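Chain and conformation:
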Amino acid sequence: MTSPTERGGTDRAPFVIGHHDGVFLSVQYLRGIASLMVLLYHAGYDLNLITEGSRPHWLASGVDIFFVISGFVMVASTATRPVTAQAFLASRIARVVPFYWLATIVMIGIIALRGQALPSIQEVVLSFLFIFYFNERAQDTSPILGPGWTLNYEIYFYLVFAALIRLPVPRRIAVMAVLFVVVAALRPLAPADNAFLTRMTSPIPLEFVAGMVIGYYRARIMRAPAIAGLAAIGLGFAALALLDPPLPRVAFFAPPAVLIVFGGVVLERHVSRPQLGVLGYLGDSSYSLYLTHPLLLACLTPISIAPHLALPLAFLIVAGSIAIGFAAYYWVEVPATRAARLLLGGARARPAVRGAKGMTPTVD
């Protein structure tokens, strides 16, 4: 439960008037941008328009932006009200699990229709329980639904966050930072062929911690001039698009992702009215888009087409994925989340309106 000191003070300010029922519009817009980045990366990769060594591979950093946003939102949405670990986890499970399980089941159906080897019972269980394992079919540390690897980190973060939720926010941030650094330091000891230990000792969870820091100091950050926010966002995207240092993923993608989210929070008071409707809707449906676009790609790949048709097909895939994401959000994700919340007795069900998900993280 949060302490009295967490419920006061300018740097612990809650979502306030101007944030539209708890929605940081700037963060919603960044969600939309991040989800579009991931979609473009996957579509381009499957159509051989993007390779690991090509310039646009930086689009994959949309995932890192999601992780920073998740840390931000978890602090901003819990720092000023009493929240038990049980209620917190119930809300997170209701938010993340139902739609992910449904999307995973659909992916299994697509695999069956394509006549490929079906996942084993063990794979299904590990995927449903958000446990890393080596996927022999994909030859990668990936669950049945590929992007689900990021949700494994989300659940890991939620469990640690819930375990420390009674601590004041600064102490919680410090403990989590030390914990994740210590765990990452153990990576050289992890067997290279152990997918679980290799993934769990990644420094990726430190991106959540960076978001938590931004969330804790959000009120102070929002007092910065708009030019500082624009400069941070511009510098972040410029670094991603123009630089290609020989660094591990986190070392390259994390600093720009932090800059981008920081810049978005700086600009929050300058976007107090929802003027970017399309981008806002894309942010709302980002979780659905993130989990459904692999389903469309799985139906279409492997694709054998003439090289000059790859780019037009990519545009069609992107447009179709966005349309499917919107439909899945309104007709599947929102009802499933509402039903799960009622079933678990966690957070109250929220209306299916624009911005209803602003208090919840997306990866996604």
Observations:
- The CA atoms of residues 11 and 219 lie 5 Å apart.
- The two ends are 27 Å apart (CA to CA).
- Confidence is low (pLDDT under 50) at residues 1-21, 346-364.
